[in-house]
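User: If you would, consider this record:
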Amino acid sequence: MGNEVIRSLFYNKNNDSLITVSVYASDNFSSLKCRSTRIEYILRGQPDAGFALFESESLKWPGFVEFDDVNGKVLTYSAQDSVYKVFDLKNYTMLYSISDKHVQEIKISPGIMLLIFKRATSHVPLKILSIEDGTVLKSFNHLLHRNKKVDFIEQFNEKLLVKQENENLQILDVRNAQLMEVSRAEFMTPSAFIFLYENQLFLTFRNRNVSVWNFRGELVTSFEDHLLWHPDCNTNNIYITSDQDLIISYCKADTEDQWIEGNAGSINISNILTGKCLAKITSSSGPPKEDESSSSSSSLGNNSKQRRNAVAEALEDITALFYDEERNEIYTGNRHGFVHVWSN
């Protein structure tokens, strides 16, 4: 079907199926369409045997669909009637809906949902809901500096992180209203966050740098050798292990390496708690294992120059990275549609 573009894929472990979120040329790629296909159908070569999901919802831009693995829920937003709906990921039944034009954003944490409403002059109204049935657990206002824009409001379990332009970071405990501040000189607004629920820490990404913080507002780790390739934190190129102790990223190679190999990056593996670089794959490492879909199937032979070129090529323009923890293999995909497997 030439007019379909798949925007995202989600593996639903509850029913061993793959959910595709696509847009179509027929409506100028403006509406999201979701489809569930059991993995067994795909393996049997019957990818059309699936069924459409959320057909009742108008997911026209800026509407969206968000899959939440932790709580086993799906959140949809229909922009034309300002309605959010929460569905069960196991059987796709609708659980409840939230219809309020003043809701600006919804953040999901284990067990709860934070509703952020349009700000008033000197505060922002917030509500915490149970993710299971939508009951309001708590409503409160968070005070703001009047004329300053809000850089972000993020939620992590009972902690709320609020940052306004040129102001300190505030960390609020919503259970007891305790407030902590981190100096704006120490904490600059990042372009992205990753919350590490196992370790009660969070990662921030800013200008190619990764930092690790705790919820007392202390910097836990800065990395010794982990300068990301993309300045704007592309999380497709970052993998965090399930124990949340290692981060594997597509990074900028050392300058000398780059000078020799042109546009090749490196794959760096660092310890999240210490910041130490434990291993890295550079263009002087061995070649990747050849995958069926990998770029060069010709034998690399013993010529080390040829071998280095093949590795350097595989380290260029990486757009996606995944680590298989059971097999201890790293998979990378690049801009040209090739997949490489890196194994010990």
Observations:
- Confidence is low (pLDDT under 50) at residues 257-261, 291-302.
- The first helix runs from residue 39 to 43.
